[in-house]
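#struct-pred

JT: dropping the chains for the assembly here, can someone run the whole complex?
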Amino acid sequence: MTRYIIRRLLYLIPLFLGILIIVFAATRVAGDPVRLMTAMNPHITEEARNNLTAYYGLDKPLWHQFLIYLANLLKGDLGNSYVIRGGIEVTSLIGDYIWPTMLLQIVSIILALLIAIPVGVISARRKYSKTDVTVTTTSLLGTCIPIFYMGIIVILIFAYYLGWFPAGGYVTVISESKDYFLGSRTLDIIWHMVLPVAVLTFALLAPIVLLIRSSMLEVLKQDYVLAARANGLNDRKVVYKHALRNALIPVVTYVGIYFGAMLAGAPITETVFNWPGVGRLFVQATNRLDFPVIMGITVIITLMTLIANLITDLTYGYIDPRIRVE
Amino acid sequence: MQKILRELIQEKNKTKGASQWNIAWRRFKKNKTALAGFFIIGIIIFMAAFDSLIAPYGPNTIPGFYSGETRAPPSSKYLFGTDYVGHDVFSQVVYGASSALFVGFAAALIVMLLATVVGVVAGFYGGIVDNILMRITEIFLVIPFLLILLVFLKVITALAPSGGGGLFMVTLMIGIFSWAANARIIRGEVLRVKEQEYIEAATALGATKTRIMIRHILPNVLHVIIVLTTLMIATAILVEAGISFLGFGDPNAITWGQQLQKASEAVKEAWWEGVFPGLFITLLVLGFTLLGNGLRDSLDPRLRE
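RK: done, full complex below.
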C-alpha cells in the first residue's frame, strides 16, 4: 500500500505543473499586467509604468518569471496582492478566506454522501416503485437546475417570505440592536450555513443518487448476488454487505470529480449567498485583475482537488485491491 | 426456383427495414421522457426562430421606463412583469432563447470535435501517442475549469473593452475547456471497438489506418458521440448561465444568466425578474438531458433486453 501511495503522489507532480503553466499563461496572455491595469488611467506616465513593471519583476522573460513563481511557491510564498489592503501577502489573505469555503464544501459533501447512499440503494431495490420514480425525477431535476437559480429561489422562500434563515453572509455583524443568533457565535455561523449547505448538498446529492442507483442495479444482476441469495442469506445482508461494496466502486471515482467541480464552482455558490470564501474573493480579484490573488486561489483549489483525487484513488485501492497491482 | 428467389428478396427487404438506426428510432418513439425532452427543445427552438413575432416588445425597448412601470409585477400588459429599467421580462426571455441555443450547440460542436479527435486517435494508436494525449486530457480534467474560464474572459475583455469577442468568445472558451471527460469516454469506446473482428478483417484486407479510423471505428462509436453531444449541450448552457450570472458574459447579448444576475440584486422586491429566466434555463437543460438519456437508452445496443 505504501508503494501505491508514493506512486500516486509522484503521478500528481506533472499534473500540477501542467495546470500551473495554463493558469500562468491565462494571466499573461494579455501581455504586461501593469499595462492592462493602468489602461484606463490617463494620468499615469510611461516612467511610472516602467517602475511598476520592474517592481513586480514583470520585466524579466516569461519563463524566468514562471521559475521565480515556482521557486517561491515551494517556499510557501504566493506573492503579494496588487490591490487588496496595501499589498497584503496572498497566503495570509487566502488563510482568512479558505476556512469558510472548506466548511461549506466538506459539510455538504459529507451530508450528500450520508443521504445519497441509502436513498440510492432503496431506489434500486424498489425499481419502478413510486418511491423510485419520485427519487429519480427529483434527482434528474436537481442536475438540471443551475445552482445559483436554486440559491435565489431558496433565499426568496426561506429568507424573505418565511424569514427563517438569513439571506446571506457568514456571521451576524453585531451592533447594539443585533446580537448573534441565540447569543452564540458558533450557532450564528451554523444558522447562516443552513441555506448554502442545503443548496450545495442537493446539487451534489442529485447526480450521486442516480449513480448509486444505476450501479446498484448493475451489481444486483451479478451471479455472486444470486449465489449469496441461494445460500439463504437474507435480502438486507445481501444488499448492504455484498452488493453495496461493489456498487460503490464506480461511485468513488465520481465523488472525487464532483468534489473538484463543486470547489471550482465556489465562485457561483459563494456569490449567491454572499459567503466570504475564496470563491467570492476570486470573482473580486478577477474583476480587479489582481493576478497574484488569482494565481494563488487557483493554486490552492487545484491542490485541494488533487488531494481529493488522491483520497479517491486510495479509497479505490482500498475497496478494490486489484487496482493496486498494475 | 423463382419462388425461392422472391422469398429471399422479401427476406432481404425485411432485414433492410430493421437496420440499427431503424431499431433505435423505434425504441426512441416509445420512450416518453425522451419525447418530452424533444418537445421542450422544439418549443424553445420555435421561440428563438420567431422571437420578434412572439415577443410583444422589441429587444432594446424599455416600455416600462416611460410609463413609470419599472419592476412592475406580472400583468396582462407585461406577462412576466418588468425589470429594473423597464424591459418587458417576457420579451427578454424570448430573445434570450437564441443565445442559449447558440451557446449550447456551438460549444458542444467544438467540444465534440476536440474530444472525438483526441479520443479516437488515442484509443486507436495506443502506446506513446495514447500516453501523451491522456496526460494532457488529465490536466484538463483536473483544472478548476470555471476559474480559468473567468480569468481568460476577463483578460480578453480587458484587452478589447468594446465587447471582447462577445458570445462567440464565451462559447469558444467553454469548448476549449470542457472536452476532456468526453475524450476519455470516447477513447474507452474505441478501445472496445478496436478489438472486434471486423477491424482485424479490414486490416487483413490492407485498409490504411486512416481508413479504418474513419470508415470502421468512427461509425461504430457514433452512437456514443451523439449521446455525449446532447448532454454536452445541456452542460454548456448551464456553464454559460453561470458565467453570465457572475457578470463575465457578453454584455451586448441578451442572455438568461445576465437577467438572473440583474434580478438577484432585488429578488425581494421583484421575484418575477429572476424566476422566469431561471425557469427557462432549467427547462432547456432538462429538455437536452431527457433527450440525451432517451437517446442513450435507444442507441446503446448493450442496454437492449
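JT: nice. The longest helix of chain A spans residues 90-125. Residues 142 and 203 of chain A are 6 Å apart (CA to CA).
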